[in-house]
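Page 47, continued from p. 46.
Same chain as before, 430 aa.
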Amino acid sequence: MRTLYSFLWYLLLPFLFLRLWLRGRKAPAYRLRWKERMAWGYRPGTLKNSLWVHAVSVGETLAAAPLIERLLADYPDVPLLVTTTTPTGSERVQALFGDRVTHVYCPWELPTALTRFMRAFDPQLVIVLETELWPNLCAAVKRHGAKLMLMNGRLSEKSYRGYGKLPRLIRPMMARFDALAVQTQVEAERYMALGAWPERVYPIGSVKFDMTLDTAVKQAASQLRVSFGDRPVWIAASTHPGEDAPVLAAHKTLRAQKPDALLILVPRPPERFDGVADQVREAGWSVARRSQQEPAADAAVYLADTMGELPMLYAAADIAIVGGSLIRIKGIGGHNILEPCAVGVPVIFGRFMRNFSEISQLAVERQAGFQVGGMDELRAALTTLINDPGLRAAMGDNGIRMVSENAGATDRNLELVLPLLDDPASQFTR
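Result:
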């Protein structure tokens, strides 16, 4: 089955390059470093006995960051490789870790490319994040003789059903994992049903609860809030096409009650920044763009057209709406609502949260957030919170407690990592 799967990947190769080229029209970074997608140009033995952490993009990189920092601190002499698949993820890795880690793009799911990659970077342990389940990558890791771990694993009901339709491909892949650290017991049962060894599956919670806001970020948030002036501020974060219009409509409703209210709008992906700025102006609002350091004092909308600043932006707001959830969007299924909760900001999110279903349910149960079903409910939740400082404070405190009480998954992941190494006491050497 995997032979046929690989053959299809090779057939798709011209279209993969074409896709990079087309995406590069709006995001030029996709047209760069294309050799890394094929693992061309690497010298065998570039790294030796490395530890490889694979994240997809920004969210996964941030989730892995506490573990990476722990490994860098505890084992400074161990080569650490961090891969992503997107330019934004690449930027985050470089911003967070600089030259303390080796960063390249993860190669495509081609056996020849993966073999070249393994020879170059020689991992002894590979940690993949969340849902990075690739049959050829997993096979290449084991063929190389390395250990394989899933960190912060999640698996929605929809994804579970999809994987279940390909048992001859998926079951061998699942059996190759030496450890699967998953977020919930429900997900643990799904992974086991797909072929993971029960004794290797550990429901240990989400590492996304393990977040702290360092002093520099707190100071930046405070300075930004001062620059806004004494006015109500709410943020609509990680919005996708189709969500900006209802957000701007809600802002219109809010401004009818609070004429000085400010919306921080954070669109995704970054190639949408210019188009959303035009959409704001067409709606009749004045807009200040963060990337151009335009002052927000007199603006109705502050367009956060930068990357990597979301925790700071949440901390500068009174209320947060998290996008990717207000309408059904293929391949999204919501975004992380724990970031605003961690900084004491009440959160509003929509119905489409399949990738964060347990966390969103917990936020509602703990009265840290509102889940809304449509525009009317969105407007109602927003106006209720903006007019009730006591409720905002109570929900913010609830969010902080919820995050704090569920923290610790990073430590539990580290406890799983160390036994997978041949000799942790000898700096990971074989």
